[in-house]
Amino acid sequence: MTDVVTFEKLPSEMLLAGKGFRLKDSDPDATPGFPGGKSDGEALLAHLDGRLTTLQETLFAESRFGGTKRILLILQAMDTAGKGGIVNHVMGTMNPQGVQLKSFKSPTPEEKSYDFLWRIEKAVPAAGMVGVFDRSHYEDVLIHRVHRWASPEELERRYAAINEFEARQTGAGTKIVKVMLNISRDEQKERLLARLDDPTKLWKYSSNDVKERAFWDDYMDAYQKAIEKTHTDAAPWHVVPANKKWYARIAVQQLLLDALEGLHLKWPVPELDVALERDLVERS
Amino acid sequence: MTDVVTFEKLPSEMLLAGKGFRLKDSDPDATPGFPGGKSDGEALLAHLDGRLTTLQETLFAESRFGGTKRILLILQAMDTAGKGGIVNHVMGTMNPQGVQLKSFKSPTPEEKSYDFLWRIEKAVPAAGMVGVFDRSHYEDVLIHRVHRWASPEELERRYAAINEFEARQTGAGTKIVKVMLNISRDEQKERLLARLDDPTKLWKYSSNDVKERAFWDDYMDAYQKAIEKTHTDAAPWHVVPANKKWYARIAVQQLLLDALEGLHLKWPVPELDVALERDLVERS
Q: Are A177 and A167 contacting, i.e. CB atoms less than 8 angstroms apart?
């Protein structure tokens, strides 16, 4: 156990999209802070599973005694970047009782008839939960910017609305972790071709994915802008290199671990006389 | 892999609460159909994980192309019987995207103001999902019968309503798997004492659990009656011996596997020209 390769520098620092951040400078092939290779990464993922599960259960337990803390992991990425894999391999090992996953698709006509945050508000995690947004309100400043479905003024309104919304969640006890999984254009091509070649993956392929590839640079611009406008102390962005799936998974796992550790969780101690209760159980 | 111990007779047959079923004859310590011990059971659970995950993903994929099939696992049991462990160890390995878990607590005042199936209807699994009810509408014919919160006539109405409700779900594409986890009174005592002795489990302990132990026999009568009244071809009951947690887990895993196999799932084949799409991706 002790010879597992761990991060030398934490993703929460290494991958933070701080002041002056430029998406262009982030290398999708890199493995920042981690000195090992694929098998080391897989070993680390398995090794830290237990810790993640224990922290999650403590978070859940606290909420049963009035705790209001919770986590919200927001995952954004280009298609095929591996959001599903993160959900499956990182969140998949947690207790399903404590995970609240919401995948946001194209809005329904009803959802469209409201402000863009209406459907988001309804999906925020309950106290004690690790919530995950697979896509999110950021679609409203990403694809909407790329295809000019929103005017520049409306986009500005949305950035501000997002910051207010996220600050409010933070104020109510939510630790927000925002992640952009960063793959390269070439890597996406390989993954789309792989879907076409595999009968168990073909169902995930959409002709629309190819069409959107023509807008790649516009998407990168939109991400750059969104990160600039909505990277706040309350809800910072992390850009995770994602060409290597194993790296993206341990990086997000580590971000979650850090977020949970930062909550200083403790097992709740119910107000009861343990000796008396033991006696009652024995006699029952 | 080939030397994993498997079921000699399937839980879907062995544990079926068929005609003339008597709960009193079901031994909570038994391990019907399984010739191995604890370590064999744990090995089998891990061994069949992959199969379960693949079937679940196929179910999910089908729903993306119009499929309406889905699973609903209903878990009922006395406190400490291990519902949470089943959710964690059996469902916990599935892809969270395809699992829809609903834990039913005491109804809220709003829920109480409606018919007992109102809140249940809202929680039925979406197409392609493996839904799990941790407790369910059966509470309304179990604890309500034990404490006489419902009259005999009202209970009869509810049994009938449940059968109609479940038949309707089945008609809409839902495969229902109903499981009662069967622990003994003595085993529950041991587990309650264990909660009192472990600071990481103490938060799960409730003084109320001891009080309910006084009604143990009434609960068993209520289960017997509920199973008699609601064991149908569309939604049969299985009584799973649960004093050995490892056995309960492999039994429920096997019930889920059988249910999924019975759906004859296939990877969807999208209507697209793969060669053309490959060419478009290559050029993109």
A: no
